[in-house]
Design brief:
654 residues, alpha+beta, 5-stranded antiparallel sheet, 20 helices, 24 strands, 47% helix
Length: 654
């Protein structure tokens, strides 16, 4: 690697500077290609996730529809609900729908719904396969690598991902089992369809990037090439400097503008060559020595030489650098230049330089800094301290930092901080502080102890950074990940986390809680006849009613579609749960006026109790879900407390 680096450096060093613009064009082109590639990649990931979520929603919706169709088809034929008969009737009914509406199974240009069942050692498809005509419908061997989404659904799994479909083509698929029928449901779309617009966009981006590179090359050739030739002459002129000298050498114009410097000089001032070329020589001189230095250089211009003298530079850290200076006046191309020789004498004054506090760096830092004495009384602050805390510098001096306390931390919190400082010499962490106007804000703060030569604390230095914006952004990301965007309620992810916490608390306290599974009646009819805007308004209205109808310690969440869940965190008995369910129905079933439509939302509520009906999330959810469907189909009140006997008897009757 070192050999390659040396080779590249030597290659570029041999080239004339006139080639530099073309190197820049290449780098600029590569940078644009990278930016375009990353941007398109990010957009593709966003589009991919949206498509995946869309397929998941479609699978969820279709599974509910198929369950309803199967139940209604069975009831319509007055048949007992044995699995075999139910599957046969449901399959026939769904095929009739597919025959009457051929586009039913299609999604986009390449996607489709697939409904399948396991036939011994193979997978059979109930709906017509989009890519095979009816005469060539084919089963997929169970152990084949094809048809993986359907195989997972038939194995009782639920999810989404990239797999090979029954054709062996890579697809993005969402899958879910329909357990009561023994079927699997898959919604899929070819990866090629998802990728196509991004590949096209990438082609355009690469084309226009290369076009801009060509235009840039032409522009450089016609307009910059003459200037580059002059720069090459100047570069040859600058090579007069003795780059290997242990003495710092710098070339300046007569007014002090730095033209070039060798490595020794750059090491002394702690700057790179690119930085130093933007400096005037007097920018490097300590302020108290500038007037004296100007007189010396004026004498150099008049006499042609400068005898050895001492002065002070300021390095990149703001520290004074004692130097020994001498110089000569040189003339090239009828222009006068100052050729200066600088010797670093810091070794002779190292101790004094190390004790110097750089006021320039201190005052220009964006972080608030305050320094206290050993008794924790503020003796110095910077300008940023006033900007962050709102307290003027003169008001903070002489006070203890305790006036910054927010009240959110108790005394033990601050005691632990100084115990750690006593043990390690430093502390770093987050603290809530208070500004002068009374606002409380989060800050990232570090406190370091400064010791004297006897290891005794003489100062405390604290650096404070306001992280309000960062905290607000983190909270925004958290809310976006855990809240439903339409209703503002917690989403499924947050609900599952909260449910598990409620289970643990209930197991510890031996206290009951109730789970309500809520579904809006005839919501699909509202969406289909009045539009999705009306449907969204109904969902928001019901969500607000449910939220207003429970206590602050209870939880209302939206699982998706028209399904809601409510956790009643503490409850005495089933009678109390039923009373709450009635109250929620009264709150949610108020008549609402939406444009010219008058609606009265209707709910079906299934209730499950912990620990009466289960001690696991999946079990309680299933019980509440089954109770909800029983309430919807078999009760006038449309709420029902789960009972295995009642639900089983009703299933046998139907």
């Amino acid at each position: 690697m070192k050999g390659l680096k040396s080779c590249l450096i030597e290659t570029f060093a041999r080239h004339k500077i006139e080639y530099t613009p073309y190197y820049l064009i290449v780098l600029f082109t590569i940078n644009m290609l990278i930016v375009a590639s990353v941007s398109i990649g990010l957009l593709y990931n966003i589009g991919f996730e949206r498509q995946k979520n869309r397929l998941i929603d479609l699978v969820e919706t279709q599974s509910v529809m198929i369950d309803i169709v199967a139940s209604q088809a069975t009831i319509a034929h007055n048949m007992h609900s044995s699995n075999t008969v139910m599957r046969s009737i449901a399959a026939k009914f769904i095929r009739q729908i597919n025959t009457k509406y051929p586009a039913y199974g299609g999604i986009g240009r390449t996607g489709e719904f697939a409904l399948g069942q396991r036939n011994g050692g193979s997978i059979g498809y109930i709906l017509k396969q989009r890519y095979f005509d009816e005469k060539n419908q084919m089963d997929i061997p169970w152990k084949s690598s094809f048809g993986e989404p359907m195989r997972r659904a038939l194995s009782g799994k639920k999810g989404a991902g990239v797999y090979l479909d029954y054709r062996g083509v890579p697809v993005l698929a969402a899958y879910k089992p329909i357990s009561n029928l023994g079927w699997g449901l898959v919604a899929k779309i070819d990866l090629d369809e998802i990728r196509a617009p991004y590949i096209k966009a990438a082609g355009y981006a690469f084309f226009f990037t290369l076009l801009l590179a060509v235009i840039g090359s032409i522009a450089f050739w016609f307009f910059v090439n003459p200037l580059v030739s002059e720069i090459e002459d100047a570069r040859q002129f600058n090579c007069l400097l003795i780059s290997k000298s242990s003495i710092g050498l710098v070339l300046c114009t007569s007014d002090g503008q730095i033209m070039n410097a060798n490595q020794s000089f750059l090491k002394i001032v702690g700057r790179t060559l690119e930085e130093i070329l933007t400096f005037n020589y007097f920018d490097l001189i300590a302020e108290k020595y500038i007037e004296e230095e100007k007189k010396r250089l004026a004498g150099l211009i008049q006499t042609g030489s400068l005898s050895t003298c001492e002065s002070y530079y300021i390095n990149s850290d703001g520290a004074l650098i004692p130097i020994r200076l001498s110089g000569e006046l040189v003339t090239m191309k009828n222009t006068h230049y100052l050729w200066l020789s600088i010797e670093d004498i810091r070794d002779f004054k190292k101790r004094e330089a190390e004790l110097l506090l750089s006021s320039v760096v201190f005052e220009n830092l964006q972080e608030a800094i305050f320094i206290t004495d050993s008794k924790k009384i503020i003796i110095k602050t910077n300008k940023a301290f006033a900007a962050v805390t709102g307290f003027p510098i003169e008001e903070a001096l002489g006070k203890s930092p305790s006036f910054l306390k927010s009240g959110r931390h108790d005394s033990s919190f601050y005691e632990k901080i100084f115990l750690e400082i006593d043990a390690t010499g430093t502390w770093h962490g987050e603290i809530w502080n208070r500004r002068k106007d009374g606002t409380i804000y989060p800050s990232l703060q570090s406190i370091s102890a400064v010791y004297d030569e006897n290891n005794k604390v003489i100062r405390y230095v604290s650096v404070l950074t306001d992280i309000s914006i960062q905290k607000a952004y983190e909270q925004q990301l958290y809310d976006h990940a855990h809240n439903d965007t339409l209703t503002g309620l917690p989403n499924r992810l947050y609900f599952e986390q909260k449910f598990d916490q409620t289970l643990l608390r209930a197991q510890y306290t031996q206290q009951k809680f109730a789970l309500f599974f809520i579904d809006l009646d005839r919501f699909k009819e509202i969406n289909d006849t009045m539009g999705h805007d009306i449907g969204d308004f109904v969902l928001q209205t019901v969500a607000n009613a449910l939220k207003d109808g429970v206590r602050s310690e209870d939880l209302v969440a939206r699982l998706g579609g028209d399904e809601f869940v409510v956790i009643i965190a503490s409850i005495s008995n089933s009678h109390e749960a039923i009373q709450i369910a009635r109250h929620l129905m009264e709150k949610a079933q108020q008549v609402v006026q939406i444009d010219e439509h008058t609606l009265q939302p209707s709910l079906s509520i299934g209730i499950a109790m912990y620990p009466d009906h289960g001690t696991e999330r999946s079990v309680l959810l299933k019980c509440a879900d089954e109770a909800m469907y029983y309430a919807k189909q078999n009760t006038q009140e449309h709420y029902y407390m789960f009972s295995i006997d009642e639900i089983s008897q009703n299933t046998l009757k139907s």
